[in-house]
Amino acid sequence: DLKLSPSLQLEIGRRAGARSIGAMLGTAMRLSRFTGATPWTLMKGGDRIWNRAYDGGAMRILRVAGTEASVEAHKNSLFCDVEFCQNSFRGFCLALYGLVSEQMSIRVVATMPEQVVYRVVWK
Hints:
There is one protein chain. This protein is of the alpha+beta class. It contains 5 helices and 4 strands, in the order αααββααββ. Strands 1-2-4-3 form a 4-stranded antiparallel β-sheet. A hairpin with a 2-residue loop joins β1 and β2. It is globular.
């Protein structure tokens, strides 16, 4: 355990997300903001991204309201057991979805033995 604060864990994820996204995708996403893309546009393909990025488990994304979603990580021991992974994932999502959102937040709303549930809200 590195004893990093949750805010530092979040920032690590945000910086990793920004680097992963890259200049080319970032430019395309910033341009797509003008054509009506939203975080939900990106979230719809979250399960495919999960399968490419993580070994094991699954992701389920449910739209709760027009600008709110529930993101569930299932059966991945890193996400379920390691606070760093939960917080750095939040930072990664802020970096990615923030490309098409003026303001957003993501927080952990539930942790269970085989599941972590996040709530994402954007404007």
